[in-house]
Amino acid sequence: MEFFTEQFFVALEQTFATGPILMLLAGVFVGIVFGIIPGLQTVTALGVFLPLTFWWDPLYSMYFFAGIIGSCGGGGSVPAILLNMPGTAANAAAALDGYPLAKKGEAVFALNVSAMTSTIGALFSVCVLFILIPILSPVLLHIGPQEIFWVATFGLITMLFAITKDYLKGLVSLGVGIALTQIGLGGPGLPAPRFTFGSNYLIEGVDVIVVVLGFLVVSEVLQNLITDNSISTEKKTKLESVGNIPTKKIKNKEQMINGWLAPFKNFWLTLRSSVIGLFVGIIPGVGGSVAQFISYNAAVAYSSDKSKFGQGAVEGLVASEAAVNAKDGGQLFPTLLFGIPGSAEMAIVLAAWQVHGLNPGPFFLRDHGVLAWALIIGLLLANLLSAIFVILISSFISKVRTLNISVVSCVVFSFTIVAVFIIRQNILDVISVVLFGFIAMFMRRYGYSAIGVVIGFVLGSVVEDNWNLTLQAGRGDLYGFVSTPGSLVIAVLSAITVAAIIYTFIRKNFLGVKKNGK
After folding, report:
1. Most buried of 28, 147, 230, 416 (most Cβ within 10 A)?
2. Is 130 a domain residue?
3. Is-above-0.85 flag for pTM?
């Protein structure tokens, strides 16, 4: 109980000292910058600054890392909403409805929805984390690969409802993403090269950053360059005035207020999405890329009007942003209790502990509770600070949509290419991201979903990895996939969803034709 009493108040007192506050602010600044520029992910920022922590006080390192982790997602939502170019892989779902809202002239509203919802999701996850640490630690040990397999499978199935109105084209898009996961070393037992064609570059598989940037960012840049001369579809009207106040400013102010209220007007959706994000974050190795799509799927499944998703549905933006930030608190759970990294970001945090001679594991909370609280409190404050920053600049930064499309696209493309090269210093990554951009551009032209490819790639690798682990654990017995209550429940839900998709497809394409023909 010392962790919840003495160590908490010590950490809280230290938080507002000059050193920790400055390190937290520095981390928030770095996180926002790395989030806004497509390709410079959270992991990249943490990896760049990890060597410097050797000379820092461990407490300062935790606040700096918390600042980066808590703000990078907030920064990444800005280009996702304004330009349909997610800054990080965890912001891909924000573009589904955030970008259509921006195209309708509601960019300020969408940015403020994102900022407020992400703050609520982070606050929820940290508060629940505080309550659940002594309760769920035994439960976490019983989450096996079969449960993770079915969660990812269920996510792939339900995404057919969201990514496109044509189920067959959606299936093809997801299939392309899944096919890309088959490149490189893989398979059960001893990994073997697959579809590498003798290339050493492909032996490690296709990097997720290359896929995300190629299909979502470069394709959008190419599409913009060849189709239109302006980003916005809004009509440029002469600015009128009411008294001495421009009506545009009134509109922006109303959008900001409506954006703040949106997550509260959709209270149950915000709560459900935060819960999903929290529990997905708790599962080691899954992360925000999966949390956003599972939460988005749930929003689509529970909606009475599924057709509005992808067209600027506020519910879609709330669902994705709440889950992405709620997962931050969830991924702290296995990291702090068991020394098991809940994500790639947490793996770097563990590395920082080891740099200072601190051993992660079950006794970390007892021996170094102040550092654990520094990470938790810092994460919450970082989400709050990044949200405030986005809110303050929302009116100004939304003007990027009035800039010349060629200028904006060339700038984004330049940053993307530089970011891709920096991550692994491999020129083949640059070639790959451009190639994927052209492929995605043609897919979009014929009605196939580029984001469906990304979803298939992210969830497909999770499905395959846990399929192999489940088979190995059960020595090839398929009963292992439904051997636990949790796996059985999710398997049944998946089967019901498949049946619903088949029924809807038949009714739409066959029964509907017959009815019209009568």
Report:
1. 28
2. yes
3. no
